[in-house]
Design a protein that fits this description.
Blueprint lengths: L2 E5 L8 H16 L3 E4 L5 H12 L4 E6 H5 L9 E5 L2 H11 L2 E4 L4 H15 L7 E4 L6 H12 L5 H4 L2 E4 L2 H12 L1
Parallel strand pairs: 1-2, 1-5, 2-3, 3-4, 5-6, 6-7
Helix pairs in contact: 1-2
């Protein structure tokens, strides 16, 4: 099947519901036969994500900069762990090794990764599908702002349309899989 990169939070202080969402995502990816590409961490949603994938028999590929390995947050149980020299090279490698992208709730790092893949897609540097999971309207304020950008022509409608929004994990994966075939 496909290598699906998932962007999500690595905070250790999140509510359990976000960790459960990440674990559900990892497990569902594995059940569908996909390889999980992650940021290579073992904490927060990222840790729950890879644990969920492995609990369902999935393969995991982590990509992490040396600076985070040094902080002892690397997913050493990953089937493959690639260590990069910087956050920028991490994102580049994650894009190269992935067939599609899924974004769960997260903070600045998650948004940075989402916007990197989205921007490179608008520049036609890749044509890989991207889906944002908007659980409980988490991203609604951001999506409203992005729609205003499009209305004011700061964002082309075709660029806005590159990002699919789904309310749940199953719907997000169905959207990704339909674009991969």
């Amino acid at each position: 099947m496909a290598a699906i990169c998932v962007f999500c939070a690595s905070s250790r202080t999140l509510d359990q519901r976000w960790l459960d969402l990440a674990a559900e995502t990892g497990a569902e990816l594995a059940r569908r036969g996909h390889t999980l590409v992650s940021g290579g961490g073992c904490v927060g949603m990222m840790g729950a994500l890879v644990d969920g994938a492995r609990s369902a028999g999935g393969r995991t590929l982590g990509v992490i900069p040396q600076s985070l390995v040094d902080l002892e947050v690397a997913d050493l149980a990953s089937d493959e762990l690639v260590v990069t020299d910087s956050m920028a090279s991490r994102k580049t490698l994650m894009i190269d090794k992935s067939d599609a992208f899924l974004t769960l709730p997260g903070g600045l790092g998650t948004l940075d990764e989402l916007f990197e893949v989205w921007t490179t897609a608008t520049l036609a540097l890749h044509s890989k599908p991207m889906v944002l999971i908007d659980t409980d309207g988490f991203y609604r304020p951001l999506l409203d702002w992005l729609d205003k950008l499009a209305d004011q022509r700061f964002l082309k409608p075709a660029g806005r349309d590159l990002l699919t929004v789904a309310p749940s994990v199953p719907e997000a994966l169905e959207a990704l899989e339909s674009r991969l075939t």
